Amino acid sequence: MRSFDYARAASVDEAIRAGADGAVYLGGGTNLVDLMKLGVVEPGALVDVSRLPLDMIEELPTGGLRIGATVRNSDLALNGLVRERYPVLSQALLAGASGQIRNVATVAGNLLQRTRCPYFQDVSKPCNKRRPGSGCPAIKGAHQGLAIFGHSDACVATHPSDMAVALAALDARVETASRTVALNDFYVLPEERPELETVLEPGELVVAVSLEAPLEGARSAYRKVRERASFSFALVSVAVVATVVDGTVRSARIAFGGVAPRPWRALKAEEALSGREASAESFEAAAAAELEQARPLRDNGFKVELVRRLLVWTLTEVCK
User: Fold this and answer.
1) Would you give the DSSP letter of residue 149?
2) How far apart are CA 135 and CA 32, in angstroms?
3) Which string of DSSP letters, residue by residue, matches 59-97?
4) Distance (Å, rounded) from C-alpha 63 to C-alpha 211?
5) What backbone torsions phi and psi does residue 182 show, to the nearest 5 degrees?
6) CA 305, CA 294: separation in Å to the nearest integer?
7) Cβ contacts of residue 142 below 8 Å, gap of 6+?
8) Residues 262-282, buried b or exposed e (16+ Cβ, 10 A)?
9) Within a 10 A sphere around the Cβ of 204, how many other Cβ atoms?
10) pLDDT, tens only, 244-279
11) What is this structure's pTM?
């Protein structure tokens, strides 16, 4: 690890000034420090934002929640209002990493964590995320765990967050010090600029995530398929938030993880479900509608079947 400067921000404004001068924000450090050890990122300066007063979970007058950027993942997962109103979010957080990491990791850091693509993490290999224009060896190499949706000729990496998948299904909004962005507009796909992963400008600081009040009668669940039972990233995961009235799906919001460079909002599946009978046939049709967009690579076509089965299973559970 190369030497770097370190400073602890005393205020949001101080952190933003440091970020504008090129410093990298440090929260829990569970992802950033690993990447620094690997030589993937080599910041000249870190500004510690973990002590800023951004660690509150506040109930909004509308019945929603505002979650500070430095709230620890464990605290968010176990919060009473989250468990009662947004169980899908609590489930997603508890499905991620280990208890030790959840005790340190922050909300903003979770949203901004980098891909676990092995080529991105290996500085001896080319990677368009690390060195734009150097190529993407994953396309013809080891890509079993990588994307089947939303990838490009420049990058087939997947976003690793569990929490972000649940937030996508909850229509969360990301607040920075200067603006608010819908989470489903927060991430960008790897087209001309695969090194860019979010719409954040240099030095822009995430300060909170906000959620609307839950829909009356809505039920939700987060389910994850992985290679081992704990401390493993998703091969495929799904978050479902649905409302069923008299056997008919009135609303459904669905997001997948482990299958795209961003939390993948399943808009075609949602459209196929809306107003349909809550039945196995409808769930299969919704999965088929979404999977029309899938572009599996040579060795990850198994994810197509995992997406289908996991969505049907989770919809059956949520909509019963």
Assistant:
1) S
2) 23
3) E-TTS-EEEETT-BHHHHHH-HHHHHH-HHHHHHHHTSS
4) 9
5) -60, 135
6) 11
7) 118, 299
8) bbbbbebbbebbeeeebeeeb
9) 18
10) 999 999 999 999 999 999 999 999 999 999 999 999
11) 0.97
